[in-house]
Amino acid sequence: MGSILRWMALSPRRGTLPGMAILTEPIGSIPRPAALMQAIAASQAGEITLTMLEEAYTEALRDTIARLEQTGSPVITDGEQTKPSFVTYPLSGLNNLAPGGVKIPFADGHVRQLPCLTAAPFRYAVHAAGYVEAARRLTQSPIKQAVISASALSLLYPASAIPGYSRNEFLADLVDEAVADIRGALDAGAASVQIDFTEARLSLKLDPSGNLLRSFIALNNQVLERFTPEERQRIGVHVCPGGDHDSTHSADVDYASLLPDLFQMNAGRFYLQMASEPDRKRVLGIVRQVLGPDHIVFIGVIDPIHPVVETAAQVRDRVLEAASFLPIAQLGTTDDCGFAPFADDTSTAREIAFAKIRARIEGTELAARELGV
What we know:
By secondary structure, this protein is α/β, with parallel strands linked by helices. It has helices at about 1-10, 35-45, 50-70, 130-135, 150-155, 165-185, 200-205, 210-225, 230, 255-260, 280-290, 310-325, 350-370; strands spanning about 25, 95-100, 105, 110-115, 115, 145-150, 190-195, 235-240, 270, 295-300, 330-335.
């Protein structure tokens, strides 16, 4: 616990970690090892026992944490090795869901589809605390835990009302569960919690007026208001245009339409896709305008979709570019998006993902030295 306490004792405004002059954190998911993917397929085919599958999950988690530590990452995640996806993990085991929910179309033509709720009440079957506890047994490094936003799960409620369970009742239960998810992760020892809000940019594609986006932000703020200002400094929000099978769902939506509303969220940290943005300087200028005095902005300097591994020098230059717009004390670096947000996504090789993570860390260090911090 000592390393966690030292990490938490640092002022968020300083933007530093032991051995790092500019904060850098991974976003979340890392491609699963081939052995785990084979074990999942074998389990679904009834060829191995549940115990054998759990052993494969544990080994994948152990290997992921060890390899993250080998990159020099000052903050560790579990790589989401044991989640079915970044969005559906709370639903595993629920019996009041049916197929046929909201569809999320990607630019390459493939579609992800959520289930829909069929009956009251709505409860999480799985909470993030369990992921933190599993990771804590394998590392003494500070742990960052990703959780899904309340706004994403609000899409589970069907267009036709559930008899005896109104949408407002559902949303009240949802907020309670989302609060418990974040609170549990913090109490389990997470140094920080990242709310995945990938539907933010997508919402503007569905409703260009911004009303849907603002309703999502209002719902997420109902969750965040249950935490103290000090706790909210450890809670962040991540946005991106999606990243699944090397495709996106909303990269054609202008960031300028999102950022002013996004920064109305009562979070202390903002994790922004930026490496893949075609006009970074324009977007960084907008971030500078909306940045609050107590915010830390983690700029994406790694594109997980692009097959070529960035060099440390390329990362350095992206950090220096961001530092020309934003206060260094409020600047951090991260990856644009997860490398495999859905468990079946094998579009990025595991070795490539770790090489990109290493480039982020080394490039951030190069930039920090050049900036003299």
